[in-house]
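[09:14] KT: can someone run the structure on this one? pasting the chain below
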Amino acid sequence: MSIKKILLLSLLACCLPFKLAHAIGPADQPSWGQFEHDFEEKPWSELEARLPPPPKQENLLPFYVSAESNNRFFIDSESILPGTDGIVRYTLVILSASGARNVSFEGMRCATSEFKRYAFGREDGSWGRAKNIQWSSIQYKDTNRQHHMLFDDFLCPRGFPVKNREEAIQAFKAGIHFNARADTIPH
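[09:31] RB: done, structure tokens below
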């Protein structure tokens, strides 16, 4: 084989990968932009909330709210449901000093510090759909701060939802979630 042919074949062998890469084109090549796209946040969507059975006295877990309130506050342990949508759903029971009982089925969205009331309990154990169901910001105030306490101390410690019902029940039984901030411990 002549030197000319060897040089020509060598030149073709060197240039062929560049020509093939150019022929494939950018649409067929992996894109670094796709890599970054894989880490972008997906749009959030809420799962449908299913009403739990009415709360039973033996399943009520008390929790501290404030010395400013004469009301007593409870969560129905059987209703606690952390969802795959990031919402922790639960039944809240409030007993006033005069004996009035308010029951509401609610959801807490830890990522945005919001809560929503889905339904209110009736005396016969049935549920009435709440009017104007919408997310409300959790207010940090001295009185009626049950949502603040539920958020910080039990259901969304440090802004993250509890992983399961058992973790939440353990927090209520202990009086505070093991991962809650030290400045939220009741005094």
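[09:33] KT: thanks! The mean pLDDT is 83.
[09:34] RB: yep, looked fine to me
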